[in-house]
Write a structure and sequence with these properties.
The chain is an alpha+beta fold and 493 residues long.
Length: 493
């Protein structure tokens, strides 16, 4: 990484000239071995790499114009603070990356989380605070454009700049120190939705679901659409090339990289505020806005929770006795069903914890339960949820003519983030490019009938296939009026 030499920058600013050799204002260093400070701020009228390097070669009038910029003053003040704290080197994103080089820009974005993490201290400059104390209450009138808090807290890039560094010092407009991350952890947790222990200890060793981390970025903004995804790379520990101009496709690529790295089904638990048809993958971090409490469930625990859910909600009302306010089932058929389901689920433990990503989409094995009012509607249970409650995905299994049963069909399904026993949502069917023309009227009729009874909260698409025998590929549920008689492998795109 390129680091500013604090002493050289300050000497140059004060007009102190070296008689013989002029030292470089910036040098390449290893972030793992060098002690350095780092700046986090809101961009405005900044100084870029080329201007910082060639400042002394400019004409006097041009040089004075650069020095008058607010961005240049931030660099000087940061250097003064770094020198006061005993640091000889400083990194500033505006002038330490040569953005003329796409390779250097890509390397910087993929490495930025690590650079902030390895910094000894991060200076967070809040330009819209003039008081000498950190705000402790929401003020919508004062911070109207940023949800009642300083604008620094609604920017996409500052999320990792808050979490990654071990120490973050906050400064107001006049560079007066107004607190640090550890002291302000309760207030910062209130502002950002990030647990206070993450702010004090960091993400290392902490187990948070993909949906939880995404929820921290849900209300943040970036100037470029692609940066909504690029600013989250470090939080998930993944890397991918930068392709500015790809728009929302960047966030889709990010999710695919996360799926390849983690077997966490909470990535499918998103729930947009406005219903829409589209991919099983979310379009934007804002789709995870209400997922801050969703936790990943490990495979063994998932089987236990699944059995508890089926026992309480799906097998009807068995014979039971009461003991200390607990209901204990005594129906032998009921107990045999649960025992068989538990054995079946454990034999599929490996499949329940892995995804397959290829050019056809994402293949994931999920247990499904048909709804009592329609054998064509079912819910798939995800290995995540709120507390002890698992999160289901509601979707439609459309019956096809026998000659088409082995072909793939693109359908839509609805994700619910809260478990509701009876509230069933119906959804529309989206047509695949390769559908047989004879099946089109039948499918359209089904979709129109479903829509006439529906008020969906989320619509996303998936591919599924229904060959005659699927027992080796998905969890088979007991033969019951409220349970599926067959398992299905869902191939979602």
């Amino acid at each position: 990484m390129k680091l500013l030499d604090v002493k050289v920058v300050l000497d140059r600013h004060k007009g102190i000239q070296q008689a013989k050799n002029k030292p470089d204002v910036m040098k390449e260093h290893d972030d793992k071995t060098k002690r350095y400070a780092i700046l986090s701020h809101r961009w405005g009228e900044e100084v870029n790499y080329e201007e910082m390097i060639g400042l002394m070669k400019m004409e006097e009038e041009e040089r004075e114009e650069v020095k008058q910029r607010h961005g240049y003053q931030k660099i000087v003040k940061s250097c003064e603070q770094a020198m006061e704290d005993g640091y000889e080197w400083l990194w500033v994103d505006t002038c330490c990356i040569d953005k003329r080089s796409s390779a250097e820009l890509s390397e910087a974005i993929n490495s930025m989380y690590r650079w902030y993490q390895n910094a000894r201290v991060c200076y967070a400059y809040l330009s819209d605070i003039s008081e000498s104390t950190f705000p402790t209450k929401e003020d919508v009138k004062r911070f109207e454009k940023s949800n009642g808090w300083p604008e620094w807290f609604v920017r996409g890039w500052t999320l990792q700049e808050l979490i990654a560094p071990k120490e973050v010092k906050f400064f107001n407009r006049d560079w007066v120190h107004i607190g640090n991350k550890r002291q302000l952890a309760p207030t910062l947790a209130l502002i950002t939705g990030i647990p206070s222990n993450v702010l004090t200890i960091g993400l290392a060793g902490r187990r948070f679901s993909v949906a939880q981390i995404m929820s921290w970025a849900a209300n943040r903004e970036t100037t470029r659409v692609e940066d909504r995804a690029y600013s989250l790379l470090g939080l998930f520990g993944v890397n991918m090339p930068m392709v500015y101009g790809e728009g929302k496709m960047a966030f889709r690529r990010l999710q695919l990289e996360i799926i390849r790295e983690y077997s966490d089904q909470s990535i499918f638990a998103w729930d947009p505020r406005i219903p829409r048809a589209g991919s099983v993958l979310a379009e934007d971090p804002s789709d995870f806005q209400d997922c801050g409490r969703i936790k990943k469930v490990e495979p063994d625990e998932f089987v236990d929770r699944l059995m508890a859910y089926i026992r309480l909600q799906e097998l009807g009302h068995p014979w039971y006795i009461r003991r200390n306010y607990r209901k204990i089932a005594t129906n032998p058929i009921h107990l045999c069903r649960l025992a068989w389901l538990r054995w079946r689920a454990r034999t599929l433990g490996q499949q329940l914890r892995t995804f397959t990503v290829n050019n056809a989409g994402i293949q994931v094995c999920l247990p499904i339960i048909t709804l009592p009012d329609s054998q064509s509607h079912c819910r798939a249970i995800l290995a995540c949820g709120y507390g002890y409650v698992l999160t289901p995905i509601y979707h439609v299994l459309t019956r096809l003519p026998r000659r088409l049963q082995s072909s793939r069909l693109s359908v839509s399904h609805i994700t619910k983030t809260l478990m509701k026993s009876v509230a069933t949502s119906y959804l529309t069917t989206s047509m695949p490019r390769t559908m047989d023309s004879d099946a089109l009227p039948h499918t359209l009729a089904n979709s129109q009938e479903m829509l006439s009874h529906s008020r969906p909260s989320q619509v996303i698409s998936l591919l599924w296939s229904m060959p005659p025998a699927m027992s080796g590929h998905a969890l088979q549920l007991a033969s019951d009026t409220t349970l599926a008689k067959h398992g299905y492998t869902l191939i979602v795109t």
